[in-house]
Design goal:
345 residues; 24% strand; nucleotide binding; Gfo/Idh/MocA_Oxidoreductases
Amino acid sequence: MTTWKVVVAGCGQMANTWIEYAREREDTEIVGLVDIRPEAALQMADRHGLSCGLYSDLREAIRRSGANLVFDVTTPNAHRPTSGTALEMGCHVIAEKPMASSLSAAIELAELSRKTGLSLSIMQNRRYLRRVRAFRDLVKSGVIGPIGFVGADFFLAPRFGGFREQMASPLILDMAIHTFDQARFITGADPVSVTCHEWNLPGSWYTGHASAVCTFEMSDGSVFNYRGSWSAQGFPTSWEAAWRVSGSRGTAIWDGDDRIEAESFNEAGEAKRTEASMDWDGREGHAGCLDDIFAAMAEGRPAETCAADNVKSMAMVFGAMESSRRQATVQMAPLLQEYASYRET
């Protein structure tokens, strides 16, 4: 059994969840904490009773600790240098979403993972929820027929403070990646094109655009429509969004909470209601995603959220941002052409 020697890069609030998970595993040891603020690493070590090395430089941390796995829990603009350095130094990597702060950087990381033969997997914790898996299974069961339309509404008003409120596209880059990735997960389809409009609602406390409407053409011929805001006060949706999937024989809905059902019609026009089956027995959220990634590394297979797959969700994010900037429809193929050429070599 492989013993995972982990360096945690980034000692902000989110790192607590990752460290708590690692300490549950008998095959995992935290051997280093890295942060550009020495006091942050020290405080994290004290909080969790860790006696590992504390560093401000990732290369030094890996070299001195003998790490073979890096948790990249840095801010999005630091993912390319952090995950890239770890892969170059022979470590597998598990990184927070988004994979990188640009599509080109994400493509470079996916290619680096392929060339080194080391795994790079991304935290897409919202795939690992019993309800989203139940909804996916209901949609894919065929009860509503071939899919023609997918809609997701996401309206909340969180006040984070910090870097999110200063980002140019906080909703799409930092949050919509979850919903976009869920759309691919639910349908099994990939994006073909996107038309997006971003803006700010009156009274928004975000510097960048915190509201957006995006329409994607998908590879199965369906249309995925995303409507969202991070500054919409009143009548909030679930963090998982409110979903509607329409097919040739009916519609499946999920309110993001407990209502998951389909209404379908037979040839005689008779309606039938079908409730989702909650059969998935994995752990939810971060723990479920990390369980799958660790199992994939042990078995030598790609994780469900490996870099090669996650690039497609990232293309949805950056395609939407590019569409908004250009005020035009953006085709996905040119965005992913560089990655496709990598995969062919």
